[in-house]
């Protein structure tokens, strides 16, 4: 069977990221991707992870500690717009748009700040590196954000990036889909 | 680097088709996919291949003979709507919409007959089998056909099929993209 969109995102990242690299989880949420990234880069690497919600950070910390990988994850209670301050090349950046599962559904990522974060992320992405953006758009702000992010990505120079949209189109309304941005170069 | 859409289609087919199976090339064109399919199912298998243009059939025959695989390709100078008459389960069906490269650009696949052919193809596709539809939509009829095929695919029951749209969205206008339809089941 075709893999689900999350599996596709992880496979694309696994094929490109090396042990020992620095990577970014732009939206910790429940820590699923943070854990995945920490296990991927291992102790010699580093994960920088963002979330504006204390609940997300606590859930993630607990999870990482249980799995024994918290030592190389730099958790930041801050907006992913702070990616701007990262000053080293990174191999991968993961975004999960929308709200925290099990949290306050009124607190969602927003189009304008998401696009600033994506822009900042692309600036620190190394050649050959990849950014994955999982788009959940069943909520009202999600539809606006989806259109804005997709439009932004369409404008990215094809000399520098290749933007893949991977979507199952016969699903119930608003099934999440994946945008994956690869930075060209070695 | 991300693979091009044709490579993606072939990879999806390779992962699902067995040596010895029957498969269909709905649009021979220059015979690229016919050759790929013939090499995949090998002598024990069979490729049924359609095109309404004699030029396409001649180019394809020449190619298959040169590669020594013509023996198990059943070439039919007929519309892919004739897929309807196939009476055995097939593992894969490939469509390349648009016109014959190097041929008469006024002769293109058309929305209504393409959709009838897709419908017929889905009826003979075995569970676990796959249909790939490469959509070229740079020409006028292509835009109409693209919209019609996409709309049709969106209506396919998610109990029976999974429809993947795989598209690079920051390319020059009208870059071809892929629809891949997997029939559920073992």
What do you see in this structure?
The structure is a homodimer of 186-residue chains. With 186 residues, chain A is of the alpha/beta class. Chain A contains 5 helices and 7 strands. In chain A, strands 3-2-1-4-5-7-6 form a 7-stranded mixed beta sheet, with helices on both faces. The first copy, chain A, has a single domain (5-183), classed as Vaccinia Virus protein VP39 (Rossmann fold, 3-Layer(aba) Sandwich), CATH 3.40.50. Chains A and B meet through α5, β6 and β7 of A and α5, β6 and β7 of B. β6 of chain A pairs antiparallel with β6 (161-168) of chain B, so a sheet runs across the interface.
Question: Which descriptors apply to this entry?
Answer:
homodimer, 186 residues, alpha/beta, Rossmann fold, 7-stranded mixed β-sheet, 5 helices, 7 strands, 26% strand
Report, as a whole number of angstroms, the end-to-end distance of chain A. 32 Å
CATH fold annotation of chain A: Rossmann fold
Number of helices of chain A: 5
The tally of domains of chain A stands at: 1
Largest sheet of chain A: 7 strands, mixed
Strand content of chain A: 25-35%
Most extensive interface between two protein chains, with residue counts: A-B, 25 and 25 residues
The average pLDDT score of chain A comes to 95
Strands of chain A, total number: 7
Order of helices and strands of chain A: HEHEHEEHEHEE
Question: Which stretches of chain A are poorly predicted, pLDDT < 50 over at least 5 residues?
Answer: none
- Order of strands across the main sheet of chain A: 3-2-1-4-5-7-6
Described by its quaternary structure, the protein is homodimer
Rg of chain A, alpha carbons: 15 Å
Per CATH, which architecture of chain A? 3-Layer(aba) Sandwich
According to CATH, what is the class of chain A? Alpha Beta
Query: Could you say which structural class the secondary elements and strand pairing of chain A correspond to?
Result: alpha/beta
> What coarse outline of chain A follows from CA principal-axis ratios?
globular
In CATH terms, the superfamily of chain A is: Vaccinia Virus protein VP39
Question: Which percent bin holds the helix content of chain A?
Answer: 25-40%
């Amino acid at each position: 069977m075709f893999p689900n969109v999350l599996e596709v995102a992880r496979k694309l990242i696994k094929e490109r990221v090396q042990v020992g690299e620095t990577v970014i989880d732009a939206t910790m949420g429940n820590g699923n991707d943070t854990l995945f990234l920490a296990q991927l880069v291992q102790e010699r690497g580093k994960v920088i992870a963002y979330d504006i919600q204390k609940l997300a950070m606590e859930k993630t910390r607990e999870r990482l500690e249980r799995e024994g990988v918290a030592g190389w994850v730099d958790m930041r209670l801050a907006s992913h717009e702070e990616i701007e301050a990262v000053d080293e090349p990174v191999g991968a950046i993961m975004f999960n748009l929308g709200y925290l599962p099990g949290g306050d559904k009124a607190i969602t990522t927003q189009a304008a700040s998401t696009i600033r974060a994506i822009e900042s992320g692309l600036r620190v992405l190394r050649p050959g590196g990849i950014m994955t953006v999982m788009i959940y758009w069943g909520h009202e702000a999600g539809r606006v954000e989806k259109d804005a992010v997709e439009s932004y990505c369409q404008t990215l120079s094809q000399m520098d990036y290749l933007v893949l949209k991977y979507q199952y189109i016969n699903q119930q309304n608003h099934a999440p889909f994946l945008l994956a941005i690869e930075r060209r170069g070695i």
